[in-house]
């Protein structure tokens, strides 16, 4: 059964990793996918081609999620290109890890702007469309780190915890218009982001996870599928940990 037949979806940061996994599974479920990237043009254009081969409409857009004006222009362009928007997935994110003692102001600000300010930018940009159609699903990619904190990631943890507060507030504010907003808190997912860690640290994470493995982009994409589709029509303001039991 295709759960998103004919739905138009925006995914930020889908040139690789989790975003790419979401784009692929959503296309398999019949969704038209508009997605962004920041600098990885080649993989983004390859993904556009791969998704199109699945028989859906797909388009890559270079857009900095941290920029309010770029996000507004992006959404206007997607509305012109796709004719509507049903689902927004705020997935773009970065890390700039350091102990607080050594963290620069710039690294703190950059992570907050790309991870947290971006979801304000994009949610504002789609809000009018969702209000008019009295329907919409917004999914914010938080992290277990936003729920429990992590040494060496004060900037990242603050951004991801902020996303949870934003998610719950949007759910309360827009629920009466049938606009739902939920967050996913992935645990340790094996992508380029976590590929920067040394093998010993990675092995330590895997052993600490009750399901004894790192997650895959598909694990996260399947949770997104639930929140994007009518299977979750009565679910809003929630944070779903997709972490192999890490936070249990
Ligand atoms: P990734 O492999 O590093 O991919 C990040 C994606 O975000 C790329 O497509 C990148 O585009 C895009 N991006 C970065 N800065 C951007 C900007 N300013 N504007 C637009 N797009 C931008 O990361 P990932 O592991 O897939 O993570 C995806 C999301 O899940 C992030 O929000 C991350 O915090 C969250 N998460 C990941 C894990 C994990 O274990 N991997 C765990 C919890 C939460 P380019 O390729 O052009 O740079």
In terms of topology, how is this protein built?
Layout: E1 8-11, H1 17-28, E2 32-37, H2 41-53, E3 58-62, H3 68-82, E4 87-90, H4 105-133, E5 136-141, H5 144-148, H6 154-174, E6 179-186, H7 192-195, H8 199-208, H9 217-228, E7 239-242
Parallel strand pairs: 1-2, 1-4, 2-3, 4-5, 5-6, 6-7
Helix pairs in contact: 1-2, 1-9, 3-4, 4-6
Bound molecules: NADP nicotinamide-adenine-dinucleotide phosphate.
Summarize the structure.
By secondary structure, the chain is α/β, with parallel strands linked by helices. The chain is built from nine helices and seven strands. It is globular.
What would you report as the Rg, rounded to the nearest angstrom?
Answer: 17 Å
**Total domain units:** 1
Mean pLDDT score: 98
How much helix is in the residues? 40-55%
CATH superfamily: NAD(P)-binding Rossmann-like Domain
What is the structural class?
alpha/beta
Global geometry:
globular
Strand content: 5-15%
What would you note in describing this structure?
The protein has one domain: Rossmann fold (3-Layer(aba) Sandwich), CATH 3.40.50. The protein is 49% helix and 15% strand. The protein has nine helices and seven strands, in the order E-H-E-H-E-H-E-H-E-H-H-E-H-H-H-E. The chain has helices at residues 17-28, 41-53, 68-82, 105-133, 144-148, 154-174, 192-195, 199-208, 217-228, and strands at residues 8-11, 32-37, 58-62, 87-90, 136-141, 179-186, 239-242. Helix 1 (17-28) runs parallel beside helix 2 and helix 4 (105-133) packs parallel to helix 6 (154-174). It is globular and about 45 Å long. NADP nicotinamide-adenine-dinucleotide phosphate binds at residues 12-19, 36-40, 64-66, 91-94, 114, 141, 143, 186, 188-189, 191-194.
């Amino acid at each position: 059964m295709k759960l998103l037949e004919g739905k138009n979806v925006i995914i930020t940061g889908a040139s690789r990793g989790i975003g790419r996994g979401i784009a692929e599974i959503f296309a398999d479920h019949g969704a038209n996918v508009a997605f962004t990237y920041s600098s990885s043009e080649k993989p983004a254009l390859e993904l556009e081609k791969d998704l199109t081969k699945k028989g859906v409409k797909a388009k890559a857009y270079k857009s900095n999620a941290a920029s309010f004006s770029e996000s507004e222009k992006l959404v206007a362009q997607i509305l012109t290109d796709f004719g509507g928007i049903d689902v927004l997935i705020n997935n773009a994110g970065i890390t700039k890890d350091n102990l607080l003692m050594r963290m620069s102001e710039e690294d703190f600000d950059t992570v907050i702007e790309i991870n947290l300010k971006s979801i304000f930018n994009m949610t504002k940009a789609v809000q009018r469309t969702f209000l008019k159609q009295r329907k919409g699903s917004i999914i914010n990619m938080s992290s277990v780190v936003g729920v429990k904190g992590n040494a060496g990631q004060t900037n990242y943890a603050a951004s991801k915890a902020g996303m949870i507060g934003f998610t719950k507030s949007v759910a309360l504010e827009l629920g009466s218009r049938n606009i739902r907003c939920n967050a996913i808190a992935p645990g340790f997912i094996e992508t380029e982001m976590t590929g920067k860690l040394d093998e010993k640290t990675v092995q330590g994470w895997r052993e600490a996870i009750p399901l004894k493995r790192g997650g895959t982009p598909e694990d996260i994409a399947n949770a997104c599928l639930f929140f994007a589709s009518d299977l979750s029509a009565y679910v809003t303001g929630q944070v779903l940990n997709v972490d192999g039991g890490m936070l249990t």
